[in-house]
Amino acid sequence: MRVTLSLPDPLAERFLALVPNRKRSSTVARLLEKELARREHELEQACRAANADPVLAEDVAKWQSFDDPATTKGKRRSR
Q1: Residue 59 falls within a domain, yes or no?
Q2: What is the C-alpha separation between 46 and 71, in angstroms, rounded?
Q3: How many CB atoms lie under 10 A from the CB of residue 60?
Q4: What's the domain count of the chain?
Q5: 24 located within any domain
Q6: How far is Cα of residue 67 from the mean position of the Cα atoms in its chain?
Q7: pLDDT for 72
Q8: Residue 79: inside a domain, yes or no?
Q9: Do residues 58 and 65 touch, judged by C-beta distance below 8 A?
């Protein structure tokens, strides 16, 4: 897949000067993979922290206790 990116001129100039023509795509792919893995790890850590939060767990339990109209179709609600 081809992707077009914009880079600041000084960065593009350094990249073009330091990375050989036939190595540029693989270099960008490797750097992107490293950055994406770092961001995925941060999201995973944030999710684990949220899942360990007892206040959040209580709120989720309250929300999940509400009747889902899709599952209560045809049933009358008592008031």
Answers
A1: yes
A2: 32
A3: 13
A4: 1
A5: yes
A6: 30
A7: 60
A8: no
A9: no
For residues 41 and 33, the answer to whether their CB atoms sit within 8 Å is no
**Alpha carbon distance 79, 74 (integer Å):** 16
Name the one residue in this structure whose structure tokens are 């330091």. 18
How many angstroms separate the CA atoms of 75 and 17, rounded? 70
Angstrom distances, CA of residue 3 to CA of 25, 29, 45, 59: 10, 11, 30, 42
Q: Which range of residues forms the domain containing residue 48? A: 9-64
In this prediction, residues 54-71 reach a mean pLDDT of 80
pLDDT for res 11: 98
35 falls within a domain? yes
pLDDT digits (tens, 9 = 90+) for 16-59: 999 999 999 999 999 999 999 999 999 999 999 988 988 888 88
Q: Compare 29 and 75 and report the one with higher pLDDT.
A: 29
